[in-house]
Amino acid sequence: MNNKNKYTKYKTLIIVFVIVLLIVLVSLLLSKLVLPLSVILIFIGLLYLSIYYPKKKDDEEIEIVIISKDSEEKKKEELRNKLKDNILAIDIKTIKDSKNEDKVIEIDIVSIKDDKEDKKVTSYIKQENVTEKVLFANNIPKKEYEKAKEEKEVVTKLSESIRKLKDNPTIITKSKEDAKTINKLFKSSVSTKPSYIVTSSFNNKENNAKRRVNARKLANNVYNACDKEIKENKIEPLTKEEKLTCAYIKTAVDDKDVKFSKDKDGYINVIGSNSSRIKFKIGKKDKYVVLPKDEAKSIKLDKYECSNEENKNSNIRVVLNKIKDVLIIKNPLIKILKKEKIIKEKKDEYSFNISIEEAKKLIKLEEENKKLLDKLSNINKNAHILHDSKSYNQELKLLNKGINKLKNKNINITNLIIRRNNLLKFLSQEKEKQKQLKKINNNN
Question: How high does pLDDT run on average in the chain?
């Protein structure tokens, strides 16, 4: 910040005192009432100073903490405690206006929740005299800036994100100057008083025009300085069970417009043509679908309470003991997917679709696989019986027959082959024992 900007806040105060001194001087020359008049004017000046100056000073005071890798452990521990709460990382880009003042043109916000990146939004603010040349010089794509909104609209929308945090939120910024600019930008719309964290590991002298805003980088700098880490919050790949569940749903509702998505929390979202949503989870322990309580009343499956995130006041978890149980909730599914939005859309989703034909193929393949698994189970069961009764040759015959039938099928028969090989080894050893025994008997 240059010296000119540094003393701008005292401009009005200086003007008032100059006027007071001029009046006193004029009074001294033209009147005998110099002393009373000068006392009154000085009193007015002091009154203005007592009202205006402290208020202005208090308004501009914000808590800014600077952290680096070399900071004392006590300071790091203090910041680690602050980073346990929900926080925001805010990065901005500014340009000069006609009065040579910095105006925010681009702002990037990342919310960090439970040490994970939660939500991210980049917004552009309309400023005057922004030409293509200015955009190019500031490394801002023209197509992106075309989406820019008025400052009031952007600030109002982004302020909602700050309000959702706890009182006195912690905000990570690039520099002291950015902290002051951000505080001024949001001060009128946010009642809470945030504290700001700046990391010295970021080059504060970096060219503001060339760099792209990157709030996540700022957050990482602070976390690294505090010996903490922002955990990757990625969407896990679709599992075989999840895809099969989607296939059963697709064939059950028989609607080509029904689509799916998977979000960061592991939910599969079933999306109807009217953007209505039903979500389910197919985990290692729990398999359930989240349904409105009214729609789930008549369903004859186990049910238990939802989490707060699933809106437990209105919804309930319907347990899927096996994937095929989704067919039991066919009618409620069709009814709900025809309504307007049931569950709000989440950002950062992996969207996908399954055609009805593909769904039928997946189900057919699963049914064929189940039959093969049943065959494999029966072979193992009968082999156990034959082995216990010492009918080893019959057991070997059964195993060989089973391996030949299943070897070109989509099923793992490794255990069957190992069992057959162990049996052959056992029979070979028994045969060798018999030979040795016969030899001993002949010698006797």
Answer: 78
The angle formed by the CA atoms of residues 153, 140 and 184, to the nearest 5 degrees, is 40
Helix, strand or coil, per DSSP, at residue 281: strand
**Predicted confidence band of residue 35 (pLDDT cuts 50, 70, 90):** low
Q: Is the dihedral of CA 33, 38, 39, 40 positive or negative?
A: positive
Residues near 199 by beta carbon (within 8 Å), at least 6 away in sequence: 66, 67, 68, 172, 218, 221, 222, 225
How many whole angstroms separate alpha carbon 375 and alpha carbon 442?
47
Is-contact 393 423, C-beta < 8 A? no
The conformation of residue 329, written as its DSSP 8-state character, comes to G
Phi, psi for 213 (deg, rounded to 5): -65, 140
Do 437 and 430 meet the contact criterion of CB atoms below 8 Å apart? no
Token duo for residue 376: 């494999």
Alpha-carbon torsion, ordered 131, 136, 140, 142, to 10 deg: 60
Q: Which of 24-38, 154-168, 267-281, 420-434 has the lowest mean pLDDT?
A: 24-38
Cβ within 8 Å of residue 396, ≥6 positions away: 420, 423, 424, 427
Q: Is 378 helix (H, G, I), strand (E, B) or coil?
A: helix
Q: At what angle do helices 11-30 and 34-60 cross, to 10 degrees?
A: 180
Gyration radius (Cα) of the chain, Å: 37
Other residues' Cβ atoms within 10 Å of the Cβ of residue 59: 12
Taking a C-beta distance cutoff of 8 angstroms, is the pair 159, 190 a contact? Answer: yes
Query: What does the alpha-carbon distance between residue 224 and residue 218 come to, in Å, rounded to a whole number?
Result: 10
Cα–Cα dist 199/68, whole Å: 6
Residue labelled with tokens 């809106």: 311
- Whether pTM exceeds 0.90: no
pLDDT digits (tens, 9 = 90+) for 91-133: 988 888 777 778 888 998 888 877 777 778 888 988 887 888 8
The Cα–Cα gap between 260 and 250 comes to 10
- Residue pair 427/414 in contact (Cβ under 8 Å)? The answer is no
Please tell me whether residue 119 adopts helix, strand or coil conformation: strand
